[in-house]
Amino acid sequence: MLLSAVIEGDRRDTAEFMNGDRFPKWPEDMRGIWSGRLAFMEQELGTFPRKKPIDQARHTISDTCAAFARQPGGVYRLNVPTGGGKTLSALRFALTHAKEWNKSRIIFTSPLLSILDQNAEILRRFIGDDSLILEHHSNLVEPVNDTERLRELELLTDTWGSPVVITTLTQLLNTCFSGNTSAIRRFHSLCNSIIVIDEVQTVPNKMLTLFNLVVNFLSEICGTTIVLCSATQPSLEVVQHPLGCLPPEMVPWQEALWSVFKRTELQNAGQYRLEEIPQLIKQVLSDCNSLLVVCNRKDEAAYLLKELRNEPCLRFHLSAAMCQEHRRNTLRDLQAALDPNIVEFQVTGDYALFSDPIMRLGGEKCSYQIPTYEALKGIVSSVYWKPTLIWRILDVRVMNPIQTEVKGIRPIKYGGGNDLAFYTYLKNCRYQVRACFDWNGNRPELAQDRNENKHHQIALRMIEKGGRRDIFLGTRECQGYVEPCAFGSGKGAYDDLPELILTLE
Question: 3-class DSSP state for residue 402?
Fold first, then answer.
């Protein structure tokens, strides 16, 4: 710890003196920042449904974690079933605990890049402020066009000086055990922090003793709170050097709560040679619509993929060896195959006006920079709608640069005559949209009309014809046009940029 502080002080002073670097500084009292992010997250969580038993169970787990955050620092276990909302529950605990005990930073770790990609996207969405977040892993592409931002990220990566750090388990273990000075320099940042270790069972067996020793040191000496997340917790208390005390469960086991997440049944299929598995797969597929096969080695997966190439079914291959973009595209195609009523279309228009009553004060109207969710639902409902179904928007791409144009309008006054107002429109709009439909549970009397293939095919034909009703981009005067497209094709205006926070401030 002393060596970490000395290296940090020496290199920081040198960088500031020789290069004129200025490291980002955060207040000693971080409770204001944590309070704002917690309020934002709880507002987002408030929009989640609570109708189904599984929805209610996830809310119960999240509320239990938030209440547990008032406990002082230590080592805790978050052991919930798969699908229980572990990532969001851990984030809610971390923000509440950081606010309650004025923690310096929150560090999230995952063992695999594929898990990290997914978790980072969720964390960014529910934290709501990218300026607080640092990602440190090999899949990260730095903004080379912004030299100032690139230098800032390099400085933050050297020190883990951001309030929220998202990194791999390997980087955390290197920081704790590597003799490299760059890793030692980051060690002091673990003090007075919250470390959420996802899938903690992936810590190598040969490192469990060292892992326990560093967890004991951080929690007992450095004031660090450590959360061990996993649906299959390892027995850290039975190794040669166990944890200082048995970690309390943040969410105690409850049969009624856990039973909601039981969705699988284990059956012993016996022993098979690799050459016999393709026939087994064909046999199982004859009785079901989809099948997941997990292989130990890449060559086994390649063999099965090759042997099943002539089967009349869609085949997808996922591997940790894939690059990030390839994996995301494969997952998107897999989702489309599992949810077959997806439609993809492009909507264009010369002008658009996506607004709400708050933005119409004094008769003026100003458009959001992008379509709202309800506006997109209105567009696809104008293409095809039946009371049997409810449209759900999956993705949207902004294809043309965001541009605005102010027009002088003479709207009709309620008492007669005209008034003068200025409307701010989007112009030259083009969007790609992916949507699917769910059955309307509020209309059980229409259950006989729940023919998925029929409605999907009608929707596709209506897209080809430009829609059943007129398409409007927000308001009646903004005419829109719909046509089929392959979502993801073509160059979008913002494909190469990181996530943008769009506001009207």
Answer: coil
